[in-house]
């Protein structure tokens, strides 16, 4: 097993996750089996109870693990399926050590950070690195480990010490350290400053780790003089200094790394069985990145509620981006807060209210994703009602589907007291109820989590056709409320058809509105399974409908015509950009 440790310096958020994902993607393109582990030094057991404002999106894995959003990057770039144990936290490690101590595994010894906690970290990494993550079920050859935070943080000290020891246990030919550092550029003179990187590497070496590769993040390309200076002061060869500047798309990062010879370096440094022939995967990735930049037509999306922190919708954005690329449109995300659509905003701030509605009225599609709590839900229901009555393509995910059911019950079934027990415990007509197995005591891991099967109940389903006319699908879930099974009969007699249910045949998973271009609600979260070259079918259907290509796509057997796929030709830039605005509340 080969191990690549990715650490960061100067500031957090320097791009370690994308760089770790990109390195993994490059090595996978060399026909190697790659896995990834993310280490978060916080004491939480997992990311399940985090506020999206503080830590961004909670990413859900097949086994129900609620993990850091960087594992989503790993899965999308590497096209793999990770497990909850691929996300290590301080809380998990200490819980593991304390449980062993209570069990008597330490034979009466004094339990300490060194060696017990550091040994537990190393054992966890070695065990999890062997778990297959590809569909071929082969044991990985390379494990990429991202240590979150900044070198020198007190929270990360046990992990740094663990890897200081681990580099000798794994042996030097099997262990490589990559340090990602910021190289700021002074505004007045434009000079690129290396002192922060110098201090960061000094701290890293003082803790017993020496970087094999130094990846310099900067706003503009690193000058050769700066690169030579870093090479001279930090005792590495110039080819060991890699420069990653800000690019138009994260899809460009693997290409930048490959251009600077990281494949050759890893082959020699870790003695990897890499052949010299060009990789088909990397070639496809380059074509995708090039095509993404050439596209002229635009698909615009408007996102609401938690709009102040865009990381809340990372997977939603990526799923839309993958689908937009498939339909030859550039995703141009615009955000609208669903609270601004509510009547209370009209009274308090009429300008904001009218601006929000003006954007919604221009939208060619409406997307309402998952969420928790009552805040902003009335605005979401208003947006859903607009999409339904004006026949605007709509996709509701999790809470979005539940609100679509409530809106339909109120306005089409005349059930004016229809509501969710999440918002009103004594709802007159409880369209949405809490799940019987949900335990409202302890939080974290108490929801319906992970991959579950959905069985199609009808042949006449848009989503069934988008998935390829399969009898069932498997998607990831994260919810503790569901549509009330006892009320489904009232919807079945209407135009809102229950086309997909779980294996028991009771829980609602998919609804579709008849006589509408695209009005779909799903209880699961299809965005977690979307990949750059394999877009999520529900999201793809939304953008196909928003761009007027859905019917033709289905009639051709889920294929776009050549004119549709390559409409980003040179003469396209002379025409008016076609916009399809999608509202995500």
* Spatial shape: globular
Strand segment tally: 22
Helicity range: 25-40%
Sheet of most strands = 10 strands, mixed
Overall pLDDT confidence: 87
Radius of gyration: 25 Å
Total number of distinct structural domains: 2
Strand share of the residues?
Answer: 15-25%
Q: Class by helix and strand content?
A: alpha/beta
Distance between the termini: 45 Å
CATH class of the largest domain equals: Alpha Beta
Walk across the major sheet and give the strand order: 11-10-22-12-13-21-20-19-16-17
Poorly predicted tracts of residues: 566-580
Oligomer: single chain
Provide the CATH superfamily of the largest domain. P-loop containing nucleotide triphosphate hydrolases
């Amino acid at each position: 097993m080969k191990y690549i440790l990715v650490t960061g310096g100067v500031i957090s958020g320097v791009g370690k996750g994308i760089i770790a994902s990109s390195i993994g993607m490059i090595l996978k393109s060399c026909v190697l089996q790659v896995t990834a582990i993310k280490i978060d030094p916080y004491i939480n057991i997992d990311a399940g109870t985090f506020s999206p404002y503080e830590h961004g999106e909670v990413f859900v894995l097949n086994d129900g693990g609620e993990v850091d959003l960087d594992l989503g990057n790993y899965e999308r770039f590497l096209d793999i399926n990770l497990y909850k144990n691929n996300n290590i936290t301080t809380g998990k490690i200490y819980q593991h050590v304390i449980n062993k101590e209570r069990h008597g595994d330490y034979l009466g010894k004094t339990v300490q950070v060194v060696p017990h906690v550091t040994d537990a970290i190393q054992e966890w990494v070695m065990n999890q690195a062997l778990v297959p993550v590809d569909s071929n079920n082969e044991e990985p050859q390379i494990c990429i480990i991202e240590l979150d935070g900044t070198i020198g943080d007190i929270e990360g000290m046990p992990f740094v010490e663990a890897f200081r020891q681990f580099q000798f246990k794994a042996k030097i030919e099997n262990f490589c350290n990559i340090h990602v550092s910021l190289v700021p550029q002074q505004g007045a003179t434009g000079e690129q400053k290396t002192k922060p990187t110098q201090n960061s590497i000094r701290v890293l070496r003082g803790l017993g780790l020496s970087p094999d590769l130094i990846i310099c993040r900067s706003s503009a390309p690193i000058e050769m003089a700066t690169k030579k200076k870093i090479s001279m002061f930090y005792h590495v060869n110039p080819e060991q200094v890699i420069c990653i500047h800000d690019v138009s798309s994260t899809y460009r990062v693997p290409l930048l790394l490959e251009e600077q010879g990281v494949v050759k370096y890893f082959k020699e440094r870790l003695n990897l069985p890499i052949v010299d022939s060009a990789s088909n995967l990397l070639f496809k990735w380059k074509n995708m990145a090039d095509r993404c930049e050439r596209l002229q037509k635009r698909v615009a999306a408007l996102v609401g509620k938690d709009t102040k922190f865009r990381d809340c919708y990372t997977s939603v954005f990526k799923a839309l981006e993958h689908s937009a690329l498939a339909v030859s449109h550039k995703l141009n995300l615009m955000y609208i807060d669903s609270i601004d659509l509510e009547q209370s905003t009209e009274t308090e701030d009429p300008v904001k209210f009218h601006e929000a509605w003006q954007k919604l009225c221009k939208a060619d599609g409406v997307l309402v994703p998952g969420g928790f709590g009552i805040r902003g839900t009335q605005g979401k229901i208003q947006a859903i009602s607009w999409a339904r009555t004006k026949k605007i393509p709509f996709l509701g995910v999790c809470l979005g589907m539940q609100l679509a059911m409530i809106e339909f019950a109120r306005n089409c079934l005349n059930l004016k007291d229809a509501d969710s027990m999440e918002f009103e415990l004594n709802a007159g007509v409880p369209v949405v109820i809490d799940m019987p197995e949900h335990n409202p005591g302890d939080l974290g891991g108490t929801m319906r989590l992970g991959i579950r099967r959905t069985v199609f109940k009808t042949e006449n389903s848009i989503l069934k056709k988008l998935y390829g006319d399969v009898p069932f699908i498997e998607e990831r879930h994260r919810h503790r409320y569901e549509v009330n099974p006892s009320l489904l009969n009232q919807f079945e007699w209407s135009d809102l058809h229950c086309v997909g249910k779980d294996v028991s045949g009771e829980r609602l998973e998919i609804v579709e509105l008849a006589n509408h271009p695209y009005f779909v609600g799903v209880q699961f979260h299809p965005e977690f399974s979307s990949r750059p070259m394999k877009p999520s079918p529900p999201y793809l259907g939304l953008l196909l409908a928003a761009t007027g290509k859905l019917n033709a796509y289905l009639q051709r057997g889920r294929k776009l015509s050549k004119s549709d796929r390559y409409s980003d030709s040179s003469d396209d830039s002379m025409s008016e950009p076609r916009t399809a605005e999608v509202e995500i509340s």
